[in-house]
Amino acid sequence: xxxxxxxxxxxxxxxxxxxxxxxxxxxxxxxxxxxxxxxxxxxxxxxxxxxxxxxxxxxxxxxxxxxxxxxxxxxxxxxxxxxxxxxxxxxxxxxxxxxxxxxxxxxxxxxxxxxxxxxxxxxxxxxxxxxxxxxxxxxxxxxxxxxxxxxxxxxxxxxxxxxxxxxxxxxxxxxxxxxxxxxxxxxxxxxxxx
Length: 194
Known about the structure:
28% strand, alpha+beta, four-stranded antiparallel β-sheet
């Protein structure tokens, strides 16, 4: 009968992933220690499936954490994840425990259906590369805008020069027409006088 209960318990377990950022104040060694503490919390009610040890990342924006009435801001963190099996009713208790953990900057727990493993270190490399790429693309965008602005100024200057040339030609045509009219009037007067 107990074998049957164990089988039922296993069937009720779901696969979850806990992804989290650890505060960077204690460095890599401290992040490993905090990571192990979080694993032990999960093992109280769940079964570890896979994990990825903390890797340093640059955060997309500054995050704050208040510990012992002292607020600190962070631009970097240690990112890690743990996949585990657990019953859904145990997740609320795990969240309470995680909320009390001062080493956690932020975390999320979500259900997942299959075990896909991307190492935190690879995520960190991607995020840090993406940040570097965005700086490069920002520079490229500024350069492209400057080039476009310069090109627009050249085109505008050329249009002004063409317009001035057209106005000059129109003025010359008008002067020639007036000269012809004057010549015609002079000729007509000469013919009348003669």
